[in-house]
Design a protein that fits this description.
- By secondary structure, this protein is of the alpha/beta class.
- It folds into 2 domains: about 5-95 and about 210-260, Rossmann fold, CATH 3.40.50.1860; about 95-205, Rossmann fold.
- Helix content is about 45%, strand content about 15%.
- The chain is built from 12 helices and 10 strands.
- The strands form 2 sheets. It has a 6-stranded parallel β-sheet, sandwiched between helices.
- Helix 5 (about 95-105) packs across helix 7 and helix 5 (about 95-105) crosses helix 11 (about 205-220).
- The longest helix is centred in the first third of the chain and has 16 residues, at about 50-65.
Length: about 270
């Protein structure tokens, strides 16, 4: 393992590409490997034991690729299995929850923070625990917004449909004087503009962007930042449906995804 070794990023599906996009833009010299477990998405309805097993299998796959650091770009895995992954490997592991929680605590002025995410992430209470561990006096309001995921994947991220859905979902937060909102799902940054319009005046915390900051700090601390050798390489692995990943993933990244390899599940993992 050295500075030329790749960064591994995995998610239960496509949403983690918002993290991949930020990392590739801010750290263009880094070699990146992305694994989307598209055959077993979504993880949210699964038991904690099953989520842990899936996440360990994805981790092992990336470790065999010689990665120098692992980014768990999945809120569900970050909420349930992050410590188990850290106990399993000897490289740094970055989740998406703590970076977002830290940014929310730093941003809120009235100490009233909203968290929007999938039902699994909100019901886990992971963001509430992380925020209150940093500042016990902050009130946290969790809100599940499940329709945001298909809107993001269909590309309906602006216009009347997205606005109406956002207004319906976010009405409770508007009524609770929330001044800071954490996007607690990696799909949600695609809806950041419409959420910002509905929640006018609130600070929007993009967990994908905050995760990249934590990643860069960890690379700096470990002297693993790649600083020479030209633009980094990008490789993509999925466990099913490469065509859908190419189409929807290209929408997430804003560019065509060319190098996609299907990995058999679970034997290859």
């Amino acid at each position: 393992m050295n500075s030329d070794s790749p960064i591994g990023i995995f998610d239960s599906g496509i949403g983690g590409l918002t993290v991949f996009k930020v990392v590739s833009e801010v750290l263009p010299l880094e070699n990146l490997i992305y694994l989307g477990d598209t055959a077993r998405v979504p993880y949210g309805p699964r038991s904690a034991e099953t989520i842990a097993r899936y996440s360990f299998e994805c981790t092992d796959f990336l470790i065999r690729k010689g990665i120098k650091i692992l980014v768990v770009a999945c809120n569900t895995v970050s909420a349930t299995s992050l410590e188990g992954i850290r106990e399993r490997v000897s490289i740094p592991v970055i989740g998406v929850i703590l970076p977002g929680a830290r940014a929310a605590v730093a941003a809120t002025m009235n100490r009233r923070v909203g968290v929007v995410g999938t039902e699994a992430t909100i019901s886990s209470g992971a963001y509430t625990k992380a925020i209150k561990a940093l500042d016990a006096g902050i009130e946290v309001f969790g809100l599940a917004c499940p329709l945001f995921v298909p809107l993001a994947e269909e590309g309906w991220t602006d216009g009347e449909i997205a606005r109406l859905v956002a207004e319906r979902y976010l009405a409770p937060l508007r009524g609770n004087d929330i001044d800071t909102i954490v996007l607690g799902c990696t799909h949600y940054p695609l809806l950041k503009d419409v959420i910002g319009k509905v929640m006018s005046g609130s600070v929007i915390i993009d967990s994908a962007a905050e995760t990249e900051k934590a990643l860069k700090a960890a690379l700096d601390d470990g002297r693993l930042l790649r600083t020479r050798g030209g633009a980094g390489t990008h490789r993509f692995f999925v466990t099913d449906s490469a065509e859908k990943f190419k189409t929807v993933g290209g929408r997430f990244l804003g560019e065509e995804i060319r190098d996609i390899e299907i990995v058999n599940v679970p034997s290859s993992l």
